[in-house]
Structures are given as structure tokens and as C-alpha cells.
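Predict structure. Chain length: 314.
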Amino acid sequence: MKGSFLKIFTILALLFAFSMHSHAQFREEAFNQSYNEPSDTTSAKDSVAQMWTFREFFRGIAHKDTLRIGSLFAGATVFVGAEQIYNKQYWKLPIVYGGLGATIGLGIHYNKQFKDSGNQHDKDMSKYMFASAGFLYWATLMDGAFNYRRDVPHQPGKATIYSILVPGLGQAYNGEYWKIPIYWGLMIGSYHFWDQNRTNYKKYKRIHNLATTEDSGYDGRITAEQALYYRNVFRRYRDYSVVAFIGSYLLQIIDANVFAYLQDFEVSDNLSMKISPTIISTYNEYAFNAGGPASFGAPMYGIDAMGLKVGFTF
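Prediction complete.
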């Protein structure tokens, strides 16, 4: 039971931390000269020091300010139902809270029964209830992101959150469906090798334990040294598979965010180059003229020179 709560708490903490970090890394205004548009009415302006505040979040939930989707998602990972409140879909709150309360409560109930009776059915039901609670929590976040509205035709923040919740959905949002099989192939392949290497790791770990235990009766052809070697090899490959899976997952999130920005990037076939003569006029305290080098206290004009100015249009 303690292990289940620890896992749930860890997942919530990671989601909250990552969503705050992603809001800092994946801005919706990343390709503008200024992160704060004149029409921006949010209570907290973008800056390096301040990316998410409780004041900004709760003012947005109270509909006193416009709340960015990144800030809304970050807060909703802890304050469940905040997205539904911000989207003014209050009728969904009883479903969210009632569903979470029922599934978590039944999970605790069946887990207690399993400890008292040892019945496998109660253990399975407890797992199903906790899994249902997790699914409902995920569905609440997805519903809030999907129903978020802002007067922007294509939102990089929404693409990023889609990819966080469902790998490949951000690519679908960007209209780049051909990328989905690539990322899913990478993640499925990583999982396959993880499962295969984990199985072999357990196998050679068991053989090594038998070979190094007195009176175990082990008389196999694999020695303890060989079992130890293969155990370490497959454990390392198992860990590499985990890194590959996490890397593939993060890569598709970054891809969705970056290419969401590029949706408005104008690509034209008009590529031209213009060359024209120009006068290069120097003004530098170290420049030389007919009178010798300038002193530090009295910068002087240097000798003007002719040059070429090159301009590109693309």
C-alpha cells in the first residue's frame, strides 16, 4: 500500500516539475523579439527568474487574468480540476472528483481486504481501481488541454502538452503524421529490448546466485564467473534500453514544440542577392589616421574606405 502511494506521489511530483520546466523551455513567444506582447494581460510576465507563480495561477482560475496553457497545466497536475474550472466546464467537476474518490477509495478497500484474507481477487481489484484512478487523472489533464482556448491559430504550448500526455499527438496536432510511426517505433523498440535484456538479466542473476550458494545442488555448464559476466552485460543493456526509451519520449516532445513554432514560419521561393558599393566609415579609438594613433582619451576618425554591401532576400 505504501509503495502504491509512493509511486503515485512520485508521478505527480515529476509531472509538476516537468510541466514547470517545459513552460520555461517551450515558450509560446520564443520566436519574437520580446516575450511580453503589449496585449498580454497575464498577471506574471515572462522572465528568466519568474515563470510560474501561485498568484498568476489562482488569478487565472478566478478568471481575473488570461492564463497560459503551460501555467495552467503545471498547476492542474497538483490542483486537479483546475483546468475544468478555467475552461468554465463546472459540470465536469463532480465526475472528476467523484470518480477519483470512488476509485481510490475502492482501491484502498480491496487492498485492506487482501491483507486480511490474502485473496488474489481482492489484490487484482485493488490494482484495477488504482489504475482506473490514474487513467481518470490523465483524462482530466487531457480534457483540460484539449478544451483550452486562446486567440492564437496554432499553439506550441498545446502541441507540447499533447506530446507529454500522448506520444505522437503533438505531431498529429502539427499535421506531421508521418513522424508518429518513427517515434512510436523507437519507443516500442526500446521497450522490446528492455524486456528482453531484463529477462536475460534475471536468468543469469538466478544462475549466479545458485552457483555461489553452498548446497544449492547446481551443476550447470555455466560457471559462476560466466554468469556474473553475462548478468552485468544484460543489466547494462537493460539500462541503455531505459535511456533510449526516455530519450525517444523527450525527443518527440521537443519535436512537437519546435515544429509548432515553425507552422507560421514563412518559406518563400524568392531567393535573391543584391550587391552594391558603399563607403565604410570608421570611428574607433584605436583607428589610425594621418596624425598617428588616437589616444584613449580622444577617439578620432580613421580613413574612410570603399567596400561592397551584400544583401540577401529569402
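Summary: The CA atoms of residues 58 and 64 lie 9 Å apart.
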